[in-house]
């Protein structure tokens, strides 16, 4: 008669030294959520710092932007460069407080580049600003205008009028959300334009979950129309046409405010005189 097999007592074999392989697809062990509950993060309420200016004073760069000398960003740069003077004294401190009723702000004109605004008829096939290496943009095609900045944009496949300037207040007037400056486009499409298409374009189309502002639309032929906008979303005209199932074959900006293309051809450039710049700043009316 065989004696019963006796298993020696002792600690079980270490699980980590087991010869059994653990499947790499094995799901990790789930732990009780109670163990890992963390108290919600609490953020201290944001406390706005009180203004360091005395009552009745205004920041120098804000005043300069308000009276049209420069945009706030440009004004701050001019101040730091030592070009701005208050009552004949050079100020280098952005945020300097002035009394607009008593203090006089002047610039050292010999160091200040003159304001310059040009109207370019952008040819088709070049970008407003290069988005990648090897792409031809306005500055590459027209190096004499490289010191100016484009106000707004026209995509590579579009042509027409675009303003270039070093006037920050003009840029702000044309690009701010409540700008009243109209931009008119001549659009040619592959399909026939119906009255329903014109009504949709005029009344507004939802782009990026927001309806476009009302537009003025006129039919120019079986496959062409003009549209006047007071806003400038990215590729707006093309996207509006796409929503109406219209395929754009030609897109030309023919007017900005009161400035029209007239007899300008692709590549032509015109100097914008100061009175026209001021008119654009006031809404282009």
Question: Strand share of the residues?
Answer: 15-25%
Shape, principal axes of CA atoms? elongated
Q: Per CATH, what is the topology of the largest domain?
A: Pseudouridine synthase
Helix content: 10-25%
Order of H and E elements: EHHEEEEEHEEHEHEEEEHEEEH
Number of DSSP strand runs: 16
Low-confidence stretches: 13-20, 25-38
Largest sheet: 9 strands, mixed
- Spell out the CATH superfamily of the largest domain: Pseudouridine synthase
| Assembly category | single chain
Please give the alpha-carbon distance between the first and last residues: 117 Å
**CATH architecture name of the largest domain:** 2-Layer Sandwich
Query: Which CATH top level class of the largest domain fits?
Result: Alpha Beta
Integer tally of domains: 2
Radius of gyration, in angstroms, nearest whole number: 32 Å
**What number is the mean pLDDT?**
83
- What structural category characterises the helix and strand content? alpha+beta
Number of discrete helical segments = 7
Short description:
This protein has helices at residues 60-66, 72-80, 138-141, 168-175, 195-203, 236-243, 274-281; strands at 58-59, 84-86, 89-90, 97-98, 105-107, 117-122, 149-151, 159-165, 183-189, 206-207, 210-211, 216-221, 224-229, 248-256, 259-260, 269-271. With 285 residues, it is of the alpha+beta class. The relative contact order is 0.12.
């Amino acid at each position: 008669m065989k004696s019963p097999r006796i298993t020696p007592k002792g600690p079980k074999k270490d699980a980590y030294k087991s010869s059994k392989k653990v499947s790499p697809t094995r799901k990790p062990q789930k732990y009780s959520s109670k163990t890992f509950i963390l108290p919600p993060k609490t953020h201290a309420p944001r406390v706005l710092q009180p203004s360091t200016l005395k009552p009745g004073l205004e920041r120098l760069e804000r005043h300069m932007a308000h009276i049209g000398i420069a945009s706030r960003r440009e004004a701050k740069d001019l101040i730091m460069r030592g070009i701005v003077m208050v009552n004949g004294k050079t100020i280098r401190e952005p945020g300097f407080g002035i009394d607009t009723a008593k203090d006089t702000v002047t610039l050292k004109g010999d160091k200040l580049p003159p304001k310059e605004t040009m109207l370019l008829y952008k040819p088709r096939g070049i970008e407003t600003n290069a988005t990648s290496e090897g792409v031809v943009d306005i500055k590459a095609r027209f190096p004499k205008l490289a010191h100016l900045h484009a106000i707004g944009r026209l995509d590579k496949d579009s042509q027409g009028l675009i303003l270039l300037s070093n006037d920050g207040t003009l840029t702000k007037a044309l690009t701010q959300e409540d700008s009243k400056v109209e931009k008119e486009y001549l659009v040619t499409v592959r399909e026939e334009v119906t009255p329903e298409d014109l009504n949709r374009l005029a009344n507004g189309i939802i782009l990026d979950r927001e309806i476009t502002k009302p537009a003025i639309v006129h039919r120019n032929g079986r496959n062409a129309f003009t549209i006047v906008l007071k806003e400038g979303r990215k590729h707006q005209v093309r996207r509006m046409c796409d929503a109406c199932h219209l395929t754009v074959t030609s897109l030309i900006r023919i007017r900005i405010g009161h400035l029209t293309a007239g007899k300008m051809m692709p590549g032509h450039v015109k100097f914008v005189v100061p009175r026209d710049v001021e008119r654009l700043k006031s809404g282009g009316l």
